[in-house]
Amino acid sequence: MPTRNTPRVSIQSTDFDLSTEVAALRAQDPRVGAVCSFIGTVRDRTAGEPGQISSMELEHYPGMTEKSIEAMIDAARQRFDIYGVRVIHRVGLLRPLDQIVLVAVSSAHRGESFQACEFLMDYLKTQAPFWKKEQTPTGARWVDARVSDDAALAKWGIALENTSFNAQD
Amino acid sequence: MNVTVKYFASIREAIGLASEQRDTQATTLGALREELIAMGGAYADSLARGKAVRLAFNKVMCDETVVLIEGAEVAFFPPVTGG
C-alpha cells in the first residue's frame, strides 16, 4: 500500500491497481475534491487491421524516462492548480487487455484534474522515451509514431515534434 | 573527447549495439551524427538525413546544435511510441 512517500513516477514490469493508487493520492491531501485518472491498455489491433497483435515489448531509456516524466509533472503543476500526481508506465512484455499506463491527478475541483491528466498523457505520448514493438503473425514490427499525437501536444501551445525529420528540443 | 553513445529501439537493432564509448572529434551532436553516418553500413542507414531520428544529451531531449562535452551521454533513437 503506497504511503505519503509514494514516488510520483514508476517504471515497472508489474501490473498496478487503480484503487490503491487513487487511495494514496487522496490520502496525501484532505483538500482534494477531485481525482481524475487515465488508464491506457494494450489493444490487439491497429486501425484498419483485424485483431492480430499477440503481444508487445515495451523498451525504454532507463533514467531518462523517469527524468522526462518528472519534468512533465513539474510543467503540469506550473500550468494547473493540482495537488498530487501519479504516473506508472509498464515496460517489458505485455499482452492485449493488459494495463500499460496510468496517469492520475488530484485537485480541489474537477476542471484542473481533467486538464492536467490529458496534458500529461499528451506530453508523455510524444516526449517520454518508450518504444513499442508488436508481435504479429507476419513477424515483429516497431510501432510508428503518430502525427496526431504531435497535434495533441500542440493544442497546449507546446510545439515539440516527435515525428519530424528534424529533432527538436 | 570521450562520450558514451546509446541507441534504442529500431536504431539499436540495426546497429547491433545498445551503447558504445567513442573517442570523437565532433563538437556538436549534429557533427557526431555525421561522424557516425560516415562509418557507413547500418550507422549510415539508420541515422541517415531524412530519417526521423531523435537525440538526447545527458538524458534530456535536445537538438543537434548542442555542444558535446567530455564524458557526455548522447542517445539516438526513433520517434517515441509509449503511452
**In one word, what is the shape of chain B?**
globular
**Major sheet description of chain A:** 4 strands, mixed
Q: What series of H and E elements makes up the topology of chain B?
A: EHEHHEEE
Rounded Rg of chain B: 12 Å
In short:
The complex is a heterodimer of chains A (169) and B (83). Chain A is α+β, with helices and mostly antiparallel strands and 169 residues long.
Q: Which helices and strands appear, and what pairs or packs with what?
A:
The complex is a heterodimer of chains A (169) and B (83).
Chain A (H helix, E strand, L loop, with lengths): L8 E4 L5 H10 L6 E8 L13 E6 L3 H16 L2 E9 L1 E3 L4 E9 L2 H18 L2 E7 L2 E4 L4 H8 L15
Parallel strand pairs in A: 1-4
Antiparallel strand pairs in A: 2-6, 3-5, 3-7, 4-6, 7-8
Helix pairs in contact in A: 2-3, 3-4
Chain B lengths: L1 E6 L1 H7 L3 E5 L5 H9 L3 H7 L6 E4 L2 E3 L10 E5 L6
Parallel strand pairs in B: 1-5
Antiparallel strand pairs in B: 1-2, 3-4, 3-5
Helix pairs in contact in B: 1-3
Explain the overall architecture:
The complex is a heterodimer of chains A (169) and B (83). With 169 residues, chain A is of the alpha+beta class. Chain A is built from four helices and eight strands. Chain A is globular, with a radius of gyration of 16 Å. Chain B has 83 residues and is an alpha+beta fold. Helix content of chain B is 28%, strand content 28%. Chain B has helices spanning 9-15, 29-37, 41-47; strands at residues 2-7, 19-23, 54-57, 60-62, 73-77. In chain B, strands 2-1-5-3-4 form a five-stranded mixed β-sheet. Chain B is globular and about 30 Å long. The mean pLDDT of chain B is 97. Chain A binds chain B through residues 40, 58-61, 63-64, 67-68, 89, 100-101, 121, 124-133, 142-145, 160, 162-169, and chain B through 6, 8-10, 49-56, 59-64, 66, 75, 77-83.
